[in-house]
Amino acid sequence: MELQDLKNDWINNYPKPLIIAGPCSAESETQMLETARRIKESGADVPVFRAGIWKPRTKPNGFEGVGVIGLNWLKKVKEEYGFKTATEVANANHVFAALEADVDILWIGARSTVNPFTVQEIAVALRGTEKTVLVKNPVNPDLALWIGAMERLLGQGITNIGAIHRGFSSYQKTKYRNIPNWQIAIDFKNQFPNIPMIVDPSHICGNRTGLASVAQEALNVGYHGAMIETHCTPDEAWSDAAQQITPEILAELIANLQTRNADDAEYEDKLGQHRTLISDIDFQLIQLLADRMKISEKIGTVKKENNIAIFQPDRWKVITEYAAMKADETGMSKDFIEKVFKAIHEESIEVQNSVMINK
């Protein structure tokens, strides 16, 4: 059997969109039950309660989860409030403990997905399970690793599989904690439309302000749901406090999410994908332009220190010739490319002039 052949009927057992919510980390029984109670009382349509039992951290000596005891708290959440439960597993021992605790949905985290040896260990431990297993994209933008992780699961007879898009790490400082890089996720979705895709706006944003827009953007391109970190007292959370929201805000966010009618689903799906990709490219363009202007500022400093004029005709000639060449290579209008480069060059002169005047 190939990934393309999976039916993944498990997703039909949940409402659309499927919302998975709960704290980043299990901290105490009280915190878990309080969060679950308020999610239930808020009226939010949340069928699955999530919590991190083991927390892989970038640096040692930080909070790395409460461990197995937290699984008992997840069981109480299920018993008292009727939620399905979900948690991350990162090695075979985690898998055995989670299965013994009857956790309904397991997911493989981004740090694990990037390592085929780790994924294989987890897959072997999960061999033949009928539990749903979700795979987060690897931290680096590598589609093959993401697909390979699912193929390893399938190789062990695991057939209830889904994907989680949590964004990709970048050395650049942006408004995102992990840049969405929608193109990679949409490439995966186009290649495997039968594999349900869940967005993780909490890890993409790294803050509370952008959660709703990222979740909606994902639904616009046909994602099946969202995993949203929710805490009874977010500001006091032991991990990732800035990106967690209260159950009441979660309920409001879910209520405002827009889903498509079945009749226009195909049209909206295609249009939404194109618009999302345009937004993603626009964001990258703005970031690149900002980086370019920072370099222009440094050039302005060098020119001032050496008493050199800002405008250099020879340099402008090189820029226009380069623009014309790139226009030919890409099949775009020379006039359009020249206008773009002229605007960039003019802004660069303004930046350098500001350095000359103010420094």
TrEMBL record:
Residues 265-356 form the Chorismate mutase domain. Keywords: Transferase. It is an enzyme of class 5 (isomerase). Pfam families: CM_2, DAHP_synth_1. Its EC number is 5.4.99.5. GO terms for biological process: chorismate metabolic process. It comes from the Bacteria. GO terms for molecular function: chorismate mutase activity; transferase activity. The keyword Iron-sulfur does not apply. Gene3D superfamilies: Aldolase class I (3.20.20.70), Chorismate mutase (1.20.59.10). InterPro entries: Aldolase_TIM, Chorismate_II_sf, Class-I_DAHP_synthase, CM_dom_sf, CM_II_prokaryot, DAHP1/KDSA. This is chorismate mutase. The lineage of its organism: Bacteria, Pseudomonadati, Bacteroidota, Flavobacteriia, Flavobacteriales. The gene is aroF.
